[in-house]
Write a structure and sequence with these properties.
Layout lengths: L1 E5 L3 H12 L3 E6 L9 E5 L17 E4 L8 H20 L7 E7 L9 E3 L10 H15 L4 E6 L1 E3 L5 H7 L12 E2 L1 E3 H13 L6 E4 L5 E2 H11 L19 E3 L2 H5 L9 H12 L5 H6 L1
Parallel strand pairs: 1-2, 1-4, 2-3, 4-5, 5-7, 6-13, 7-11, 8-10
Antiparallel strand pairs: 9-12
Helix pairs in contact: 1-5, 2-3, 6-8
Length: 291
């Protein structure tokens, strides 16, 4: 299998490693030269500049579009997810043999539900913020485009180097929210990357998959769990509800699971515990002994 990873950052780098292990020929498209991915051919190109995409590899079997915006605002999102995706699909569709599958890593930000509703791939998508609106537009661009496409709506990604919640609890920087439960949905880096490998190798795929773990959870529950595992008292309660930029929803991953994927980290407890044991072993000796 010949796979191009367009935007090879946090998730893409782990995906590249897994694909190389499986024997695939992997190309990583990045804005800047890099030699940190063993067994991967790195291509220096800019998704927002069509001229730099003229020499993309030919005879690709699949492409994963998982870049990061150059800036966390509407302009940054629109340039990479709309202009960048359009430029890439146009360049690839001009090949004599275009890739048979293009997977776009979108986000659960495309949902606007905010009262703890359950959502799946068929639920209404009415994002409230610009990031969700841009991603939803990019999803439509993919499905209306010339290549066979599949969308992965990822929950909040955490894993090595992305355990900010643990650091915040340990430093005493968090407060429990006295308001209505604010549900959060997450996916461990390992499951984000492995589910991509899974969808790349399926004979046929659905247009959209929700990629989250099995347990949407109120943020308060996550904070209490981390504090307890660190042997710390429960974080104090805030005086008033915390203003939220993101919605509150519970994502179902039934379609992904029904396709045959099995999660390495089925809940936030499984994922966070691994990092607690590795990073703070002296603070949770009982877990170190059991690991």
């Amino acid at each position: 299998m010949r796979v191009l990873i367009a935007g090879c950052g946090y998730v893409g780098s782990r995906l590249a490693g897994l694909l190389v292990e499986s024997g695939a020929e992997v190309f990583a498209l990045r804005r800047r030269p890099s030699a940190d991915l063993l067994g991967v051919t790195t291509l220096c190109a800019d998704l927002t500049d069509p001229e730099t995409l003229a020499t993309l590899p030919r005879s690709l079997d699949a492409v994963v579009f998982c870049p990061s915006p150059s800036s966390p605002d509407f302009h940054g999102y629109s340039r990479i997810f709309i202009d960048g995706l359009r430029n890439l699909t146009e360049a690839l569709s001009a090949h004599e043999r275009p890739p048979g599958r293009l997977i776009f890593t979108s986000s659960t930000a495309v949902y606007g539900q905010s009262n703890g509703e359950w959502v799946d791939e068929t639920s209404p998508t009415r994002p409230r913020r610009f990031n969700g609106k841009v991603l939803l537009e990019a999803e439509k661009l993919l499905h209306d485009g010339p290549l066979s496409g599949c969308v992965m709506r990822l929950g909040g990604i955490y894993g090595p180097g992305r355990v900010r919640r643990i650091e915040q609890v340990r430093a005493g920087e968090v407060r429990l929210d006295p308001g209505a439960p604010h549900y959060t949905n997450r996916i461990h880096l390992e499951d984000a990357a492995r589910s991509l490998v899974h969808l790349l190798t399926l004979r046929s795929v659905a247009p959209v998959y929700l990629v989250t773990d099995n347990e949407p959870a109120p943020d308060n529950d996550v904070l209490r769990f981390i504090a307890a595992e660190l042997g710390l008292p429960e974080p104090p309660m805030a005086e008033s509800p915390t203003p939220r930029r993101s919605g509150s929803k519970r994502c179902r991953n039934d379609r992904l699971i029904a396709s045959g994927y099995r999660l390495a980290y089925p809940s936030y407890r499984d994922g966070y515990l691994v990092h607690l044991v590795r990073v703070f072993p002296k603070e949770i000796p009982r877990r170190q002994d059991a690991d």
